[in-house]
Amino acid sequence: MIRWSPDEKSLIELITPGLILLASILIIIWDGLDEPSRKWWCSIAINADQIKTPILLSGAILIVLVSMVLGFLLSVLVGYIEAKVYDRITWCKLRLDEEAYYKQWKRYVHSLDGDGRNSYISQVFTNFRREVRLGVALIPLAFTLTCLSVSFWIVFSLLFISTWLLYTAHHDHHILGEYRMDRPAVTTASSGVQQID
């Protein structure tokens, strides 16, 4: 079984949605090319075995780098989506006001300095990040394929998967909010004093 380090996992979480966005961009570019340009690119792909290894390697590195940049931009967008959409829904469902919700969040973050990490909650948070990033990345891909008159069922499947991922992310975000709300007390690392929620 392959074991990924935390840094490698984070890199994969950036690259995978980035690749999906890059595919959407390339499909749009391909659709905009005229016939001679398409034939030229096809001839390059057919004769790929004649292209020197350094050029292919440079192309692969460029794809990975562009995917990382797109993945990073997507993660920033996901941060805004979490703050503006998921947080609002969660504090309403938990019957808290915004101030109380963020106070709980700050207490929870401070408690991590002195706590051993809860592997279950860490996994829920990791799943949340993956679900939102992939869910958001699939939306432009689906709409790009719609413009190319791809089968309705392929587009529908992508949108269904995207919706399911975003709904699952909402559920995981709610679990995290309930976990913070249900913690009876937290101990700060500096003072060792317990604060009651």
Question: If you had to describe this structure to a student in words, what would you say it looks like?
Answer:
The protein has 197 residues and is mainly alpha-helical. The protein has one domain. It is 78% helix and 3% strand. It has 6 helices and 2 strands; from the N terminus they run ααααααββ. Strands 1-2 form a two-stranded antiparallel ribbon. Helix 1 packs parallel to helix 5, helix 3 crosses helix 5 (119-147) and helix 3 packs across helix 6 (152-182). The longest helix is centred in the middle third of the chain and has 41 residues, at 53-93. The radius of gyration is 22 Å and the shape is elongated. The two termini are 42 Å apart. Residues 1-5 and 185-197 have low confidence and may be disordered.
Summary of the model, kept short:
The protein has helices at about 5-30, 35-45, 55-95, 100-110, 120-145, 150-180, and strands at about 185, 195. By secondary structure, the protein is mostly helical.
SSE layout:
Blueprint: H1 6-32, H2 35-46, H3 53-93, H4 98-111, H5 119-147, H6 152-182, E1 185-187, E2 194-196
Antiparallel strand pairs: 1-2
Number of domains: 1
Order of helices and strands: HHHHHHEE
From the helix content, strand content and strand pairing, which structural class follows? mainly alpha
Low-confidence stretches: 1-5, 185-197
In total, the number of strands is 2
